[in-house]
Amino acid sequence: MNQPSIVVVSSSLAPISRSRIAAQYAGNFLRSIGCEVQTVDLSSMAVAPYPASENDPETLSAVNLFNSAHGWVLASPVYNFGMSGVLLNFLHYALDSDRERFKPFVIIETLGGLRSALSSDHLARTMVYEVNAVQVGPAVHAVGDAGINRATGVISPEVIHRIEKSMAALAHYSRARASVQSNLLSHSWVAA
Ligand SMILES: Cc1cc2nc3c(=O)[nH]c(=O)nc-3n(C[C@H](O)[C@H](O)[C@H](O)COP(=O)(O)O)c2cc1C
């Protein structure tokens, strides 16, 4: 398997969003290094709190897309020292299954100040402990307009460097995950 598939989830509902800009950059970079990338932009979907959208076709299709990928990018604003409730709500549907195990993921978080830099820890813990996902490096942070300028859309060289480094690592892990998929699933102790 040479071309890993990666789903990028963007969760800010703000019309101009730093985390969406970062998610788009990450997706384009992953494509440029040979990954097949699909985006789930939660700002263009209406996913109601669990379980109200359980039978909604658009939600189901996004959940299936998410679960069929070899790796994930989760992009979120920091709100009150935590990740966006919109992202967590989507994951209540998407992680409601033990089918998908040991998949690599990277978190991108945009925030107002570095004192909130550990805000994504609860999301990482959910991913690692609940679905046995594998976090590839620390979360990528972009702080305020110095990190990603909302008015111009310009991403600082430092944030670009962090995104590219993390995406390159994610591509490698996703390729590895894709190549061992049939092996992993052949063992009953990790089977779907
Ligand atoms: C309701 C709300 C709560 C926020 N809470 C925090 C916070 O706890 N820590 C922080 O550093 N920034 C906080 N911010 C700032 C946002 O994280 C920051 O503007 C970020 O860029 C938003 O992401 P977005 O541009 O993708 O929507 C908050 C913003 C809002 C609107």
Summary, kept brief:
By secondary structure, this protein is α/β, with parallel strands linked by helices. It contains seven helices and seven strands. Strands 1, 2, 3, 4, 5, 6 and 7 form a seven-stranded mixed sheet that branches.
Q: Structural class of the secondary structure composition?
A: alpha/beta
Following the backbone from N to C, one meets helices and strands in this order, namely: EHEHEEHEHEEHHH
Residue-averaged pLDDT: 92
Strand content: 15-25%
Termini gap: 20 Å
The Cα radius of gyration reads 16 Å
Shape: globular
Largest sheet features: 7 strands, mixed
The distinct bound ligands, ions and cofactors come out as: flavin mononucleotide
Are there runs of 5+ residues with pLDDT below 50, and where?
none
Percent helix range: 40-55%
Summed up, the helix count is 7
Please identify which CATH superfamily we are dealing with: Flavodoxin domain
The level 1 CATH classification is Alpha Beta
**CATH topology group:** Rossmann fold
Number of domains: 1
CATH architecture: 3-Layer(aba) Sandwich
Count of extended strands:
7
Characterise this structure.
By secondary structure, the protein is of the alpha/beta class. It has a single domain (5-190), classed as Rossmann fold, CATH 3.40.50.360. The chain has 7 helices and 7 strands; from the N terminus they run E-H-E-H-E-E-H-E-H-E-E-H-H-H. Strands 1, 2, 3, 4, 5, 6 and 7 form a 7-stranded mixed β-sheet that branches. Helix 1 (18-32) packs across helix 6 (157-179) and helix 2 (57-68) packs across helix 3. Bound molecules: flavin mononucleotide.
